[in-house]
Design goal:
It is an enzyme of class 3 (hydrolase). Pfam families: Asparaginase (PF00710). Residues 2-152 form the L-asparaginase N-terminal domain. InterPro entries: Asp/glu_Ase-like_sf, Asparaginase/glutaminase-like, L-asparaginase_N, L-asparaginase_N_sf. The chain is of the alpha/beta class. It has a single domain, classed as L-asparaginase, N-terminal domain (Rossmann fold, 3-Layer(aba) Sandwich). Helix content is 26%, strand content 31%. It has four helices and ten strands. It has a six-stranded mixed β-sheet with strand order 4-1-5-6-7-8, sandwiched between helices. The chain has a two-stranded antiparallel sheet with strand order 2-3. Strands 9-10 form a two-stranded antiparallel ribbon. Helix 1 crosses helix 4 (115-128).
Protein backbone atom coordinates (compact mmCIF):
# COMPACT_ATOMS: atom_id res chain seq x y z
CA UNK A 1 0.00 0.00 0.00
CA UNK A 2 1.22 3.49 -0.90
CA UNK A 3 -0.06 6.52 0.96
CA UNK A 4 -0.38 9.63 -1.19
CA UNK A 5 -0.32 12.95 0.65
CA UNK A 6 -1.51 16.02 -1.23
CA UNK A 7 -0.30 19.51 -0.34
CA UNK A 8 -1.46 21.60 -3.32
CA UNK A 9 0.95 23.29 -5.69
CA UNK A 10 0.79 23.89 -9.43
CA UNK A 11 -0.50 20.38 -10.13
CA UNK A 12 -3.84 21.39 -8.53
CA UNK A 13 -3.99 25.07 -9.60
CA UNK A 14 -7.08 26.56 -11.21
CA UNK A 15 -6.51 29.76 -13.21
CA UNK A 16 -9.29 32.31 -13.53
CA UNK A 17 -8.04 34.90 -16.02
CA UNK A 18 -5.21 36.05 -18.25
CA UNK A 19 -3.55 37.80 -15.30
CA UNK A 20 -2.78 34.37 -13.80
CA UNK A 21 -5.04 34.78 -10.81
CA UNK A 22 -5.35 31.32 -9.34
CA UNK A 23 -6.30 29.22 -6.38
CA UNK A 24 -5.48 25.67 -5.43
CA UNK A 25 -8.52 23.62 -6.39
CA UNK A 26 -9.66 20.13 -5.52
CA UNK A 27 -6.99 17.63 -6.36
CA UNK A 28 -7.24 15.89 -9.72
CA UNK A 29 -5.08 13.09 -8.34
CA UNK A 30 -7.77 10.36 -8.53
CA UNK A 31 -8.31 11.21 -12.21
CA UNK A 32 -4.54 11.36 -12.89
CA UNK A 33 -4.05 7.95 -11.27
CA UNK A 34 -6.86 6.48 -13.37
CA UNK A 35 -5.35 7.98 -16.55
CA UNK A 36 -2.05 6.38 -15.53
CA UNK A 37 -3.90 3.04 -15.19
CA UNK A 38 -3.26 2.94 -11.43
CA UNK A 39 -6.48 1.71 -9.84
CA UNK A 40 -5.63 0.32 -6.42
CA UNK A 41 -2.86 -0.11 -3.88
CA UNK A 42 -3.04 3.44 -2.58
CA UNK A 43 -4.79 5.68 -0.10
CA UNK A 44 -5.03 9.45 -0.68
CA UNK A 45 -4.83 11.81 2.30
CA UNK A 46 -5.19 15.55 1.64
CA UNK A 47 -2.99 17.58 4.00
CA UNK A 48 -3.34 21.12 2.68
CA UNK A 49 -4.10 23.12 -0.46
CA UNK A 50 -1.31 25.68 -0.75
CA UNK A 51 1.04 27.11 -3.32
CA UNK A 52 4.47 25.90 -2.25
CA UNK A 53 5.73 29.49 -1.99
CA UNK A 54 3.20 29.93 0.83
CA UNK A 55 4.35 26.86 2.79
CA UNK A 56 5.77 27.68 6.20
CA UNK A 57 8.10 25.79 8.51
CA UNK A 58 4.97 24.79 10.42
CA UNK A 59 3.48 23.33 7.22
CA UNK A 60 6.67 21.36 6.61
CA UNK A 61 6.50 20.11 10.18
CA UNK A 62 2.89 19.01 9.56
CA UNK A 63 4.02 17.11 6.44
CA UNK A 64 6.82 15.48 8.45
CA UNK A 65 4.40 14.48 11.21
CA UNK A 66 1.96 13.03 8.65
CA UNK A 67 4.78 10.95 7.17
CA UNK A 68 5.88 9.73 10.61
CA UNK A 69 2.28 8.87 11.55
CA UNK A 70 1.64 6.91 8.35
CA UNK A 71 1.30 3.15 8.61
CA UNK A 72 2.74 2.87 5.07
CA UNK A 73 6.40 2.28 4.25
CA UNK A 74 6.02 3.98 0.85
CA UNK A 75 4.71 7.53 0.64
CA UNK A 76 4.12 9.73 -2.41
CA UNK A 77 3.66 13.47 -1.84
CA UNK A 78 2.24 15.88 -4.42
CA UNK A 79 3.84 19.27 -3.85
CA UNK A 80 4.45 22.60 -5.55
CA UNK A 81 7.73 22.75 -7.42
CA UNK A 82 9.10 26.05 -6.07
CA UNK A 83 9.89 24.73 -2.58
CA UNK A 84 9.78 20.97 -3.18
CA UNK A 85 13.53 20.64 -2.54
CA UNK A 86 13.15 22.38 0.84
CA UNK A 87 10.38 20.03 1.94
CA UNK A 88 12.40 17.01 0.77
CA UNK A 89 15.29 18.27 2.88
CA UNK A 90 12.96 18.62 5.89
CA UNK A 91 11.92 14.97 5.51
CA UNK A 92 15.44 13.53 5.42
CA UNK A 93 15.26 12.56 9.10
CA UNK A 94 12.79 9.79 8.18
CA UNK A 95 15.19 6.98 7.35
CA UNK A 96 12.95 3.91 7.38
CA UNK A 97 10.56 4.75 4.53
CA UNK A 98 10.60 5.49 0.83
CA UNK A 99 9.27 9.01 0.30
CA UNK A 100 8.91 10.52 -3.17
CA UNK A 101 7.79 14.08 -3.87
CA UNK A 102 6.43 15.08 -7.27
CA UNK A 103 4.40 17.84 -8.86
CA UNK A 104 3.96 19.60 -12.17
CA UNK A 105 5.35 22.61 -13.99
CA UNK A 106 1.92 23.13 -15.59
CA UNK A 107 -1.42 22.53 -13.83
CA UNK A 108 -3.09 19.16 -14.42
CA UNK A 109 -6.14 21.02 -15.70
CA UNK A 110 -4.17 22.38 -18.70
CA UNK A 111 -3.97 20.54 -22.00
CA UNK A 112 -0.19 20.56 -22.04
CA UNK A 113 0.79 19.37 -18.61
CA UNK A 114 3.52 17.14 -17.27
CA UNK A 115 1.28 16.08 -14.36
CA UNK A 116 0.16 12.70 -15.72
CA UNK A 117 3.68 11.64 -16.66
CA UNK A 118 5.12 12.84 -13.33
CA UNK A 119 2.49 10.98 -11.30
CA UNK A 120 3.13 7.73 -13.19
CA UNK A 121 6.90 8.18 -12.95
CA UNK A 122 6.71 8.99 -9.23
CA UNK A 123 4.51 5.92 -8.69
CA UNK A 124 7.21 3.74 -10.24
CA UNK A 125 9.91 5.48 -8.22
CA UNK A 126 8.14 5.09 -4.87
CA UNK A 127 7.40 1.45 -5.70
CA UNK A 128 11.00 0.57 -6.58
CA UNK A 129 13.43 2.80 -4.68
CA UNK A 130 15.00 1.85 -1.35
CA UNK A 131 14.25 3.81 1.82
CA UNK A 132 15.13 7.48 1.49
CA UNK A 133 13.69 10.81 0.39
CA UNK A 134 13.56 11.61 -3.32
CA UNK A 135 12.15 14.04 -5.85
CA UNK A 136 10.82 12.48 -9.07
CA UNK A 137 10.23 15.03 -11.81
CA UNK A 138 10.23 14.84 -15.60
CA UNK A 139 11.88 11.43 -15.85
CA UNK A 140 14.64 11.97 -13.28
CA UNK A 141 15.02 10.99 -9.65
CA UNK A 142 17.04 13.15 -7.26
CA UNK A 143 17.99 12.46 -3.66
CA UNK A 144 16.90 15.04 -1.09
CA UNK A 145 19.66 17.54 -0.44
CA UNK A 146 21.19 17.22 -3.91
CA UNK A 147 18.57 18.90 -6.08
CA UNK A 148 17.39 22.37 -6.99
CA UNK A 149 14.81 23.85 -9.30
CA UNK A 150 16.26 25.77 -12.23
CA UNK A 151 13.56 28.39 -12.66
CA UNK A 152 14.91 29.75 -15.96
CA UNK A 153 15.05 26.27 -17.55
CA UNK A 154 11.85 25.09 -15.81
CA UNK A 155 13.41 21.83 -14.64
CA UNK A 156 15.05 20.17 -11.68
CA UNK A 157 18.78 19.49 -11.68
CA UNK A 158 21.48 18.22 -9.38
CA UNK A 159 22.64 20.86 -6.93
Amino acid sequence: MIEILTTGGTIDKVYFDANSKFEIGDSLLPELLTESNIHDGYEIRPLMRKDSLELTDEDRQAILEAVKASACQRILITHGTDTMAQTAEALKSVADRTIVLTGAMQPARMRRTDAIFNIGFAWAAVSLLPAGVYIAMNGEVFEAGSVRKNLAAQRFERA
